[in-house]
Amino acid sequence: MQATTARTILCVDDDADDRDLVCNVIKKLDPSIEFVHAENGLVAHKLLSQAKLKNEFPCLIILDINMPLMDGKQTLVRIKKDPSLNEIPVVMFTTSSSALDKAFCSQYGVELITKPAKLATVYTEVERLLNYCR
Fold it and tell me: Residue 22 and residue 91: Cα distance in Å, rounded?
């Protein structure tokens, strides 16, 4: 059984402004949560490999779809294939609202949340993200 670091979220997004926005909103909603950032799936997998060595896993992984080197879909597939990672909740938080992307996420039991344009809506969507970490 994997041990989770109950209050750590891995946020994987190549857009620093988007990462910062999500993290700042989460910090306002729950200041006890810690963050680990990755700008693409390759960096995320290095961080997850370190987590496996320590047996300290994030309570949630937030993935963007469109990233360089290894995108969110490729990252998700690798996470779900790894028995020590596949039970960590993952949410795709992306600009995509494509039915194909939603179907892909659904195939892996992952919710796709489209990044909202309005700040007030960001709070609502980020609260939904936090429900996966409880």
Answer: 13
CATH number at residue 68: 3.40.50.2300
Mind listing the pLDDT tens digit for each residue in 48-77?
Answer: 999 988 888 999 999 999 888 889 999 999
Burial of 17 (0-12, 13-18, 19+ CB in 10 A): exposed
Q: What is the residue range of 23's domain?
A: 4-131
Pairwise CA distance, residues 30 & 24, whole Å: 10
Model confidence at 130, pLDDT cuts 50, 70, 90, reads: confident
Total count of domains within the chain:
1
Helices (H), the chain: 16-29, 41-54, 72-81, 99-107, 119-131
Does the pTM of the predicted model rise above 0.85? yes
Cβ-defined contacts of 95-103 (< 8 Å, 24+): 95/65, 95/66, 96/65, 96/66, 101/65, 101/73
